Amino acid sequence: MTPLSSTPEIFLIISDSHGKCLTPTILTSLYCIKTYSISGLQWVNNYNHDLSLLSLIHTDPISSLINSTSNILFLIGINSVRNFPAQEIIQQVDYLLDSLFSRYSHLRQGRIIITSCLPCIKPSNRFSTITLLRHNIEIYNQLLLSLSAKHNVLYLDLSVPFEWLSRDRIHLHHDYHDRFANIIINYLHDLNVHHQSSNNIKYRSREAISRRNRKRNLKFKQIQQNFIISRDITSAWSYYHVKNFLKSSNIHYARLVIVSNHTLRLHFNNSLDMLHGDQNLPHNIFDSNNFINWIQRNK
Q1: What is the CA 49 to chain-centroid distance, rounded?
Q2: DSSP 4
Q3: What is the pTM of this model?
Q4: 148: three-class secondary structure by DSSP
Q5: Where are the beta strands (DSSP E) in 132-280?
Q6: Of 263, 267, 262, whose CA–CA distance to 278 is shortest?
Q7: Strands 111-115 and 9-15: what pairing?
Q8: Domains in the chain, ordered, with CATH?
Q9: Checking phi first, is residue 272 left (phi over 0); if not, alpha (psi -120 to 50) or beta?
Q10: Per residue in 31-81, pLDDT tens?
Q11: Which candidate, 147, 85, 152, 95, places its Cα nearest to that of 116?
Q12: C-alpha span between 16 and 13 (Å, rounded)
């Protein structure tokens, strides 16, 4: 068996105040975890660049830290979801990841990890009730999972229970700091061990590929259950015609189903695509008259 690398691999954690639950530097024979925490950090903050990750990735000390490794875990989200709608935050993260890979090309060979947002039950000016805030966090986590697939980065679902929150309803109670830290440390440990082991395996087995694909497809189907629109449809429209029509209309759907009661269900990967589809598909778009008109236009 090929021995594991003697040089510990470096993982950088860039975090808001939740990163203070971790020891700043953790060193083992396999890896070194360095945590850099900034209280109040957001993906983007247009009013305070010291709290905006998009600004900080271009300046020291974060710029130097990023240059020191190709493995980064971003523990950020709570300060953004309390102030912005989930869809807007995802656009921010999308742009930030593009900027990150453009400026630091070595990261494409590394492992970038984005985490789900931790629970929060303290309303804000933007989200005035716990229900509104929790809904925004749920949508954010779902969209973030979709975005991770787009950029080929890893997504860590922290799955922290509400019972771990302190009295301020934002931060974790000190009794749970170690347990929270262990979630992240164990994840990075398993990730590193798996990576070291896989260096000795030239090809992934067909069974492993199938398991991975089934798991990913199941996650996406679960996401798609939250983003569905329905339209009445006549029997003139076949799957072939519907797919071609949606393609020509620039509707980015994930999958479609025509059910027996003449109803078309369109599933989407995120709310932005769903809203675009809902706005551009009138409720009578799939009736007989529109079918005839569309066929004639596309002869």
Answers
A1: 23
A2: P
A3: 0.67
A4: helix
A5: 154-156, 228-232, 255-259, 263-267
A6: 267
A7: unpaired
A8: 9-202 (3.40.50.1110), 225-297 (3.30.70.330)
A9: alpha
A10: 899 999 999 999 999 999 999 999 999 999 999 999 999 999 999 999 999
A11: 147
A12: 10
